[in-house]
Amino acid sequence: EVQLVESGGGLVKPGGSLRLSCVGSGFSFSNAWMSWVRQAPGKGLEWVARIKSKNDGGTTDYAAPVKGRFTISRDDSKTTLYLQMNSLKTEDTALYYCTTHRDTKYGGYYWGQGSLVTVSS
Amino acid sequence: DIVMTQSPDSLAVSLGERATINCKSSQSVLFSSNKKNYLAWYQQRPGQPPKLLIYWASTRESGVPDRFSGSGSGTDFTLTISSLQAEDVAVYYCQQYYSTPHTFGPGTKVDIK
Fold first, then answer.
1. What is the DSSP letter of B67?
2. d(CA B49, CA A37)
3. CB distance B104–A44 less than 8 Å?
4. B56 in helix, strand or coil?
5. CB-based contact A47 B93, cutoff 8 Å
6. What residues pair up with A118 in beta bridges, in sequence order?
7. Chain B hits for A108, Cβ within 8 Å
């Protein structure tokens, strides 16, 4: 069974930084393409970033609103995905979900329970 | 970026009746080399993370009741709940994973009439 467990969320002031972590189990983490998706309170789903497996180049892609501020990375030895968030804005307030593809690279997403990030002064 | 739209925004259906949700992409999500549509459907119940229902536009995820079905190709897709049950009250999202950003539709809220 695929399990994704996020941590690292919390309250941070505008302009601050936070790093989210996601530990994966029950699947081949090193081969999986991983993504972060966020959901602002009462709103829909917004894709944030993706990282491919190292075998596929380890390349990263970002949504326009976070490009240049957020960095997605992975440590396959720890089966852990990260999201480093810098220069946080109030509009980054959301529940951040760690996801992996059903078929390693494609297919729909499996989801963690999410980690809440609140950006407020 | 591929823009995903859904209709209706919300619908209320009697128990045991059919619910139909439409999803449209601003460009085709059909990959010509493998003839697969890179389209998924999710169910999100209140306070829960999204749950994968359908992938490749029409393949039901393991454990998902067969009253859920997906259809369509190219740019137009449909999620059908053939006989609505109380536990199906949720928001339903479509998503394309053809190209990044893997955009989602705005969601359709399904309630009991």
1. T
2. 11
3. yes
4. coil
5. no
6. A11
7. 40-42, 52, 54-55, 61, 95, 97
What is the rounded average pLDDT for all residues in chain A?
97
Query: Residues of B with CB below 8 A from A61's CB?
Result: 100-101
pLDDT for res A107: 87
Radius of gyration, CA atoms only, chain B: 13
pLDDT number for residue A9: 98
Which of A97, A98, A109, A115 best probes binding to B when mutated, by most B CB atoms within 10 angstroms? A109
pLDDT at A104 over 90: no
**Contact by Cβ (8 Å): B13, B30:** no
The nearest alpha carbon in chain B to A112 belongs to B49
Q: What's the token pair of residue A71?
A: 């960095």
The pLDDT score that the predictor gives to residue A21 is 98
Report the first-to-last Cα separation within chain B, whole angstroms: 36
**Beta-carbon count within 10 A of A15 CB:** 11
| Peptide bond before residue B8 is cis, with ω within 30 degrees of 0 | yes
**% residues pLDDT > 90 (chain A):** 95
Bridge partners of A60? A51
pLDDT (0 to 100) of residue A66? 98
Contact check, Cβ <8 Å, B54/A108? yes
Q: What is the pLDDT of residues A15-59, one digit of tens each?
A: 999 999 999 999 999 999 999 999 999 999 999 999 999 999 999
A90 in helix, strand or coil?
A: helix
Hey, how many other C-beta atoms are within 10 angstroms of the C-beta on A11? 12
Beta strands (DSSP E) in B8-86 are 10-13, 19-25, 30-31, 36-37, 39-44, 51-55, 59-60, 68-73, 76-81
